[in-house]
Amino acid sequence: MHLVESQNANFSVDFKEALINPNTPQGGLYTPAFLPKFDGYACKNLSYKEFALELIKSFKFGYEETFKKALKSYDKFDDKNCPIVLQKINEKLYINELYHGPTRAFKDMALQPFGVLLSEFCKDKKILILCATSGDTGPATLKSFENNPNIKVACMYPKNGTSLVQALQMRTMKAENLRVFAINGDFDEAQKTLKNLLSKEDFKNKLKNYELCAANSVNFGRILFQIIYHYYAAVQIGKKLDIIVPSGNFGNALGAYFAKKMGAKIDKIKIASNENKILSEFFNEGVYDLRDKKLIKTISPAMDILISSNVERLLFDKFKDKRTKELIHQLKNQKYFKLNQNELESLREDFEADYCTDEECVKFIKNSKILIDPHTATCFKLFNENKIQIISSTAEWSKFTPSMMKALFQKECINEKEDIKRIAKEFKVELKPEILELFDKQDESVESIESEEVENKILEWINQ
Ligand SMILES: *Cc1c(COP(=O)(O)O)cnc(C)c1O
User: Does the keyword Heme apply (predicted)?
Assistant: First the structure.
């Protein structure tokens, strides 16, 4: 199967091409023309990696040996045999822990295998990967390409928009092929800078022999791996269920929707937002309205996003390319679009949505029997006792200790390393060393730059 462009389905490229160069001629996103059927329930007894390979094969992209290699990257997770941990809380509630990889957030689920795919596809090329992060994509991308001889990564993060642990994860990675820029601005600013550079011919020409690529979830190579864990978990439980997803750029939730279309017995995909409730408005009212909205800083920073890129793939799947183009152009030009009643009803067949304030989020953390991070906590707003539900748990709590201290003990965090140990002891959980070690690593004070300076900084570095 080839992937088509969301704003012009007559244009298609093969999987490898879409992965290496996610930039499309019309400015849309590469996405499957349709979702293949896959009988995951017949694969119940396969291991996670075997299940994943069967699901990927159903797309008929080819590259089977390369995918096998990519899936081996899950050997680096806590349990070599299965990268996820599906916890049963009670008859109605399961938590799908997706953060057992090297950087303790679900971004590793896709970026670890993605890193192998890109390296394998680009053995005879030099690649510069641009990455804009709200906190977790950055560390996961840097980790995935650390010391790769042909691939350089330039990563931008909003200076005051991530947790300390997330910033340290990026700043303490010292490999020669990696550069990190703290920018003055929020995530939307970082993502905008990235999109501008990706399409700027003059910039590309100055990169000499480097080709430009992006690791954000605009890349279909990431979405593919985000279908698998939803389907796999649904198969393990076996019954019809809902999946609740803490959402920002809508990559994770889109994976759940694609899993449903492929055959997973998922009833509703429930979208949890924080106070940046653009997605909950979208699914409840059918409007995407950026006019006079300002980004609000919350305790779930990875969801502090207003421009949710992957909604475009959903529009394509539901309403086809012409309508997608129309809606996305309206959003660009008028900062607003509105679906008609039929379209909204079509969304409501698969989705529900609500948002969770910081205040509510703190209560959910405090009242939870197990440790949950502030992103995962937003999902409890959508939990109801009548159905079986899986909450998608996207990060380990240890990345957000100041918020955890406030929620659990109503205390300010003074020494983050000590407080992490204290919480772990109190809840009798074992911690992997990766997070604690960060506090012992050298961390030169960072200089932040304006987003306009990023271009020159990258060129200086590449051409030195
Ligand atoms: C990235 C991220 C999210 C949002 O996921 P999307 O796929 O962008 O919707 C939620 N929680 C955490 C911890 C994240 O890192």
Answer: no
Q: What is the pTM of this model?
A: 0.96
Closest listed residue to residue 391, CA positions, set 257, 243, 233, 232: 243
Atom of ligand 1 nearest to the CA of 254: 7
Within 10 Å of residue 91's Cβ, how many Cβ atoms? 8
Q: Name the strand (E) or helix (H) holding 374.
A: helix 374-377
For ligand 1, say whether the CB of 71 is within 6 Å of any of its atoms: no
Q: Could you tell me the distance, in angstroms and rounded to a whole number, from the CA of residue 318 to the centre of ligand 1?
A: 23
pLDDT tens for each residue of 97-114: 999 999 999 999 999 999
Instruction: Report whether residue 255 contacts ligand 1, using a CB cutoff of 6 Å.
Output: no
* Alpha carbon distance 32, 52 (integer Å): 17
Structure tokens at 316: 């394509």
Which residue's C-alpha comes closest to atom 15 of ligand 1? 136
Cβ of 153 closer than 6 Å to ligand 1, yes or no, is: no
pLDDT at 351 over 70: yes
400 CB within 6 A, ligand 1 = no
Helix (H, G, I), strand (E, B) or coil at 241: strand
